Amino acid sequence: MRAQFVLSEIGVGLRRNLTMTFAVIVSVALSLALFGGSLLMSDQVSTMKGYWYDKVNVSIFLCNKSDAESDPNCAKGAVTDEQKGEIKSDLGKMSVVQTVTYESQDAAYKHYKEQFGDSPLASSLTPDQMQESYRIKLKDPEKYQVIATAFDGRDGVQSVQDQKGILDNLFGLLNGMNWAARAVMALMLVVALMLIVNTVRVSAFSRRRETGIMRLVGASGFYIQAPFIMEAAVAGLIGGTVACGFLVIARYFLIDHGLALSEKLNLINFIGWDAVLTKLPLILATSLLMPAMAAFFALRKYLKV
Question: Residue 247's pLDDT is what?
Fold first, then answer.
């Protein structure tokens, strides 16, 4: 097969169906940009989980005098020194516990004033109204239920709270957004495949005379199909390159510069450039193979070769 002939046929096909070729490039670019974006979103959620789950604590809040009057869990009165000692001793015996930190009423009051000093309620609170607590760091954040089962409802314990539950709601929202992006991506891929098939068939129909002559002189099926397949592959590759550009630009302007989220949201551990760069070869390979395979099967049915 002469490479010059194949390349010339590719150029002819792309020029003859310029509008549809442009539509293929745009649809492939958008669908693969969403594909790459969904992969990066998954990486971002995993990175955030690893970062935040390592920092979450389980808190055991102890009853104070105010709770004894209003909270059914503290009906037996405020926590005693003996009960606090038993709780700390039992925590030290548990294999799932990494560290235990005690927070007194004065320390809790100080932290509250630092975080909510501007609140009207802050001026009316006193240290004796705050709750003592044990802050437990677990070796495995998923083992919260072990602590809850052991201490929830125990004398002197007002409640057992897991910060992981708050994070789960955030990660649930992010995962929902990610699945929505994947649904749009799937729709765009279907649109792109339909456009590729139609473009190839229109190109084959416009050159039916040439392909007919080629069949008569004994050209092989692959020889006839190759220019059409490569046209689709070239259009797809251009779209994939554009999609890669979208991802790089988005990472640059959203996180590093422009919006500069990495500077404004210091509490979030954003994915690095390595996560983006490792996705680009996959996107380019998909943009090349997907149109080529779609064109191959479209021509197999349309051209009787």
Answer: 92
- Cross-strand bridge partners of residue 138: 97
Could you tell me which of 287, 300, 194 has the C-alpha nearest to residue 234?
A: 287
Angle between helices 18-53 and 3-16 (to 10 degrees): 90
Cβ-in-10-Å burial (0-12, 13-18, 19+) of 205 comes to exposed
Q: pLDDT (tens digit, 9 = 90+) per residue, 207-233? A: 667 666 666 666 666 667 777 788 888
Reading phi first (left if > 0) and then psi (alpha if -120 to 50, else beta), residue 280 is in alpha
Bigger pLDDT: 178 vs 90: 90
Q: With a cut of 50, say whether residue 145 has pLDDT above it.
A: yes
Measured over the CA atoms of residue 128, residue 130, residue 131 and residue 135, the dihedral's sign is negative
Q: Look up the pTM and report it.
A: 0.65
83 vs 285: CA distance, rounded Å: 64
Question: What is the DSSP annotation of 143-174?
Answer: GHHHHHHHHTT-TTEEEEEEHHHHHHHHHHHH
Query: Of 195, 231, 241, 290, which Cα lies nearest the Cα of 15?
Result: 231
